Amino acid sequence: MASRPMPTHNGPPQKAVQPTGAPNQTLYLKNLPDKLQKYDLRLSLYTLFSTYGPVLDVVALKTKSMRGQAHIVFRDVQASTQAMRALQGFDFFGKEMIIQYGKGKSDTIAKLDGTYRMPTAPSSQPAITELQKLIFNAPPPSASVGALPPPSLPKPPETQANDADADREGPHGTKRGRDEESDDEGAPMEEDDSDAPMDASSDED
């Protein structure tokens, strides 16, 4: 539906009122200046709209599809209606704001009244591609628990020789119990005669 100027008897033609939708706590703003930084835009919108009632959230994204648009979430419908009526066509940094009611319930309102549902991921398990299976030798995600393990890689030749020598010599690294310890522990240690007594240093030069 195109808006066309409506003639009046008291002055120049005025623009027709934009359809605003069903009353909602969330206001949808269009035709905002896109040269402002995100922080400055949110702060300015909060300051402007909070004079009409408690503002719960200001959503202003700087993505390509949301540039020049914002959502203002009020605590109640009366405050959002009052703000929309007062600020429709307001000159905001050189551009006239277009204000409509939001189409759906905002996440902030849903969290307050307990009806918020977390968005679910499409699948809980990551998909494993054929290339990953070949590279990492991973079993497919639907493999049962009793599946055979992947074949082990052959050992290098020097490791095989060391393993063969270890098998011939017997077990290594076994710890003896206390009752198996030798009786030599009670004997005093003998001094070694090879150590010469230390001479006094000649620091007195």
Walkthrough of the structure:
With 205 residues, the chain is an alpha+beta fold. It has helices at residues 38-49, 77-87, 107-113, 130-136, 157-169, and strands at residues 26-30, 55-59, 70-74, 91-92, 95-96, 98-101. The strands form two sheets. The protein has a four-stranded antiparallel sheet, with helices on one face. A two-stranded antiparallel sheet has the order 4-5. The chain is elongated and about 100 Å long. The protein starts with 25 loop residues before the first strand and ends in a 36-residue tail after the last helix.
The end-to-end span amounts to 110 Å
Work out the number of β strands.
Answer: 6
Radius of gyration: 41 Å
Average residue pLDDT:
74
Biggest pleated-sheet summary: 4 strands, antiparallel
Strand content: 5-15%
> In sequence order, what are the helices and strands, one letter per element?
EHEEHEEEHHH
Structural class assignment: alpha+beta
Helix proportion:
10-25%
Helix run count: 5
Uncertain ranges: none
Shape: elongated
The side-by-side strand order for the widest beta sheet comes to: 2-3-1-6
